UniProtKB/TrEMBL annotation:
<dbReference type="InterPro" id="IPR043519">
    <property type="entry name" value="NT_sf"/>
</dbReference>
<dbReference type="InterPro" id="IPR007685">
    <property type="entry name" value="RelA_SpoT"/>
</dbReference>
<dbReference type="GO" id="GO:0015969">
    <property type="term" value="P:guanosine tetraphosphate metabolic process"/>
</dbReference>
<protein>
    <submittedName>
        <fullName>Uncharacterized protein</fullName>
    </submittedName>
</protein>
<dbReference type="InterPro" id="IPR052366">
    <property type="entry name" value="GTP_Pyrophosphokinase"/>
</dbReference>
<dbReference type="Pfam" id="PF04607">
    <property type="entry name" value="RelA_SpoT"/>
</dbReference>
Length: 439
């Protein structure tokens, strides 16, 4: 399947011309040509990924590494955006991504690849360091274009990201799906509010000002951002968890075919070898009346949570950045309470508990399904994964609540505004909102 067909530079040039002339009427032979271009990267990807994955684990045991071949529609989109580009010269048709737990570990891995280049099966052709020089929208990452030393010499893009930056980047794509904002493609042209919202979230916690947090809280409330994503994430998480629990436990290095419909609902299929997976991908691409988002990827000895993290823009099951949004709302509530800003306090504190009430309801639903899922009884690994996931989420939410209430000023001069807070809490509780208090 990987044998490269004898396409010439002229063939690729004419392919680009045909696609640009009639992008809505692309012939199947041209789709096949693009598919052939994709699959010739198989060996190069496998070699580079193996070396990269090994290096990442030496530096960071909790790193997540994966690889994918660019989707056909993404190749077409790139040819349409760049009128003089030829398909075979696109540098990121094949790509590996390493997600490290911190910026420090990203830099360590980057330096390791540079220092050990002579021992690695690839050379670094060029690089872009968006950590030292972030993009205008806040994007931070390191991109390396590498080439295999052995023939056939193929170019593969390597992306090195911290977990925080990966969460941010995938959340931008999730917003594009749910709010049709086209932030990744058009920046602030379609939705300036959400563009600024994500630009602020790209900052480190220590860089966020009170004004930034107010803006984050305001935009989140305007779009009911956390409520919408929280509900969708829970539905998808439970759906995907059930699919994952049915997969064969013996497959430690699966190829995963992920598809997401227009409503953000995912579907997962696994394959034990590259050829079967690529055949299924191409067939699904050609027969896709629902216009699903489809991607084929590869993992090695991974967990459900790591899969969800790596492709959260497809799975839409979890994103750590949501906690940063919630923390911003909590911080604004605390500031308003401690500075007698009654209206601002009531608005943000009420929003905080409305969001968490929804979250608690979703989590109760998950626990209920956990208790009746027959598949996890057959696998201690899957049972442990799920238990750990639920516990971790509850602990993070409880920490946010505890931290917020500890910051409230208990000075006697705050007696009257505290009465307003208690009255508001009783009102919320009477409407079914679940509140946890530590004071």
């Amino acid at each position: 399947m990987e044998k490269e067909r004898n396409y010439t530079k002229g063939d690729y040039k004419r392919l680009g011309e045909r696609i640009r002339k009639e992008p809505q009427k692309i012939a199947q032979k041209d789709y096949q040509m693009l598919q052939d271009l994709r699959i010739v990267h198989k060996s190069a990807l496998a070699v580079i990924f193996t070396a990269l994955h090994s290096a990442a684990l030496k530096i960071d045991r909790d790193s997540v590494c994966t690889y994918r071949i660019k989707r056909i529609e993404s190749i077409i989109s790139k040819l349409l955006r760049f009128q003089n580009m030829e398909a075979q010269r696109i540098a990121d048709i094949a790509g590996c991504r390493c997600i490290m737990t911190s910026d420090e570990n990203v830099i360590k891995l980057y330096r390791f690849l540079k220092d050990e280049e002579k021992k690695l099966p690839f050379i670094i052709r060029n690089e872009k360091n968006y950590i030292d020089t972030p993009k205008k929208n806040g994007y931070r990452s390191i991109h390396l274009n590498v080439q295999t030393k052995e023939t056939p010499k193929k170019v593969v893009e390597i992306q090195l990201r911290s977990l925080d930056q990966h969460n941010w980047a995938t959340l931008v794509e999730i917003s594009d799906v749910l709010f049709q904002s086209k932030l990744k493609e058009l920046g602030d042209k379609v939705n300036p509010d959400l563009y600024e919202f994500h630009r602020l979230l790209a900052k480190r916690d220590s860089e966020l000002t009170l004004s930034d947090k107010r803006k984050i809280s305001q935009v989140s409330g305007k779009y009911h951002y956390l409520e919408k994503l929280g509900t969708l994430f829970t539905e998808n998480h439970l759906n995907l968890r059930a699919q994952r629990n049915k997969l064969k436990a013996s497959r430690n290095e699966p190829f995963l075919l992920i598809s997401t419909d227009m409503e953000g609902k995912p579907e997962l299929k696994d394959f034990s070898n590259f050829d079967d997976a690529e055949t299924a991908y191409f067939e699904m691409f050609l027969n896709n009346p629902e216009n699903k988002n489809i991607v084929l990827t590869h993992f090695k000895n991974t967990t459900f949570d790591k899969i969800s993290i790596a492709y959260s823009n497809y799975f839409m099951t979890y994103n750590e950045t949501l906690f940063r949004i919630l923390n911003s709302i909590a911080d604004v509530s605390v500031y308003a309470f401690n500075n007698y800003r009654i209206g601002e306090f009531k608005k943000n504190y009420k929003a905080f508990w409305r969001i968490l009430s929804k979250w608690f309801g979703n989590k109760q639903k998950e626990v209920g399904l956990y208790n009746i899922d027959k598949n996890i009884r057959k696998s201690n690994k899957k049972k442990k994964e799920w238990t750990s996931s639920i516990t971790s989420n509850v602990e993070k939410v409880n920490k946010t609540i505890t931290n917020m209430h500890e910051e409230f000023n208990s000075n006697i001069w705050h007696y009257f505004i505290k009465r307003i807070r208690i009255k508001l809490e009783k009102k919320l509780a009477s409407k079914g909102f679940l509140l946890l208090r530590n004071d």
